[in-house]
Amino acid sequence: MKTEVFSFNELNVDGNRDYAQIIIQVTGSDFDYPSILDHIQTLKRKTEDADTDYLVDETCEWLQSKGNVCTYIPFCVVEF
């Protein structure tokens, strides 16, 4: 089994990170990163107003359908 941490960061028009960030831990046998990125891009094209929560939820469902386990990781960001 392999475990990876994925950070979903919403970017604004300037390409800077907005304050929407979701981190998930995915455990499974193998990850096809190009397929994961392609899946997310497809979701964004299908849904004009796709927000970060929607993309993460749909991606987790898709990963789970392939036998992976997704766990949301709570975290705290301190900026100063």
Fold and architecture overview:
The protein has 80 residues and is α+β, with helices and mostly antiparallel strands. The chain has one domain. The chain has helices at 33-46, 52-65, and strands spanning 2-11, 17-28, 69-72. It starts with a strand and ends in an 8-residue tail after the last strand.
Set down the secondary structure blueprint.
Elements: E1 2-11, E2 17-28, H1 33-46, H2 52-65, E3 69-72
Antiparallel strand pairs: 1-2, 2-3
Strand residue content: 25-35%
- In total, the number of domains comes to 1
Shape: globular
Helix content: 25-40%
The overall average pLDDT, rounded, is 84
Number of strands: 3
Task: Give the strand order of the largest sheet, numbering strands 1, 2, ... along the chain.
Answer: 1-2-3
Major sheet size, sense and barrel closure: 3 strands, antiparallel
Number of helices: 2
Structural class per helix/strand content?
Answer: alpha+beta
Secondary-structure element order, N to C: EEHHE
Give a brief rundown of this model.
This protein is of the alpha+beta class and 80 residues long. It has helices at 33-46, 52-65, and strands at 2-11, 17-28, 69-72.
